[in-house]
Amino acid sequence: MEQMKQYDVAIIGSGPAGISAALNLKIRNKSFVIFGQENLSNKLELAPKIDNYLGFPGISGKELTNNFKKHIDDIGIKITYEKVTNVYSMGSFFAVVCNDKSYKVDAVILATGVNYGKLLQGEEKLVGRGVSYCATCDGPLYKGKEVAVVGYNQASLEEVDYLKGVASKVYFVPMFKGQFSLGDNVEVIHSKIKSIEGENSFEKIIFEDKELTVSGLFILRDSVAPDVLMPGLKSADGHIEVNRNLETNIKGAFAAGDCIGKPYGYIKSAGEGQIASLNAVSYLYEKAISNKNK
């Protein structure tokens, strides 16, 4: 893994909450990295018409996305197109892991939205115990062994291509429609998964019509639920628990946008991104004062 890059804040998500947080950190002259995607937010870009975004009546999601892009381009904010697989609280800092890279930051703002996908039965128990969300990170552990990949998007095909050069055989379970020609040592399974099982570590996948025993399982979604992404994070009903300052139960970790609960809304998310970033700035200041007085 490469040497850790260091920033004041990491923002995870590039929708209205994440972009707003980045804008305010930029104005406050804080160093930050914002992880997201080229179109910023699938949900926003595909919205046909938005009537409740103040100052932009009847604007389309595509138009609002382009406005966001122009704004961040004009002030020099760059999106980092990497998928965050884990965020670990290390006490005095956070380690943000993306495939073969890691970042060291003093604070984190989670702006991940709510499109995580339902966890497979048994998944939460076995993550880190033979179940992984990152083929590049954990693939070498299964050199010469058989593995399975549950893929929710086209990007998972790239991970399969990588794994077939490492593992002796790859079983690919697509959760989306398409034609798949993936190589001699890749077998595509079109069957519904009932559960994944194992006592102390992952052992097998239970399908509706059969069982599959392999050494490792990779589950590749667009995003990971925050409480799985960040161990120890408190959530309820699929949303991150925060206080009025948008602080989570983990010191230095903040959250904003749809991921903290209803009502969902683009302008609400943008406002929460601002609040989270300003409170993150206050946290950084208090932390610096505390370290200076030690």
UniProtKB/TrEMBL annotation:
Domain of life: Bacteria
InterPro entries documented for this protein: FAD/NAD-bd_sf, FAD/NAD-binding_dom, Ferredoxin-NADP_redctase_2
Stretches assigned to the FAD/NAD(P)-binding domain: 7-264
Keyword Ribonucleoprotein part of the UniProt annotation: no
Family annotation (Pfam families): Pyr_redox_2
UniProt keyword terms in alphabetical order: Flavoprotein, Oxidoreductase
GO terms for MF: oxidoreductase activity
Protein name: NAD(P)/FAD-dependent oxidoreductase
Organism of derivation: Clostridium senegalense
Keyword Lipid biosynthesis: no
